[in-house]
Write a sequence for this structure.
């Protein structure tokens, strides 16, 4: 379980990846942020990363639940 400071920090990072503010991170969101950071990531890799963390199989990562924590561990 996260303490309040850790949760706040994770929410801030999540907000960077959640480009449109819908509370979800899509493969497109991930790809755009990674490219803006100068990281080489192709669409297939972004989809794979989302798929690995997508616990409810909707093609997105949400902050709640275990899905975001799984992506952070990657």
């Amino acid at each position: 379980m996260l303490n309040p400071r850790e949760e706040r920090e994770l929410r801030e990072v999540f907000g960077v990846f959640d480009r449109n503010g819908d509370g979800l991170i899509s493969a497109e969101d991930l790809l755009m942020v990674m490219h803006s950071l100068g990281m080489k990531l192709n669409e297939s890799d972004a989809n794979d990363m989302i798929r690995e963390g997508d616990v409810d199989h909707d093609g997105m990562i949400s902050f709640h639940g275990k899905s975001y924590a799984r992506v952070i561990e990657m």
Observations:
- The mean pLDDT is 86.
- Residues 25 and 61 are 5 Å apart (CA to CA).
- The radius of gyration is 12 Å.
- The helical segments are 4-17, 27-36, 43-53, 67-73.
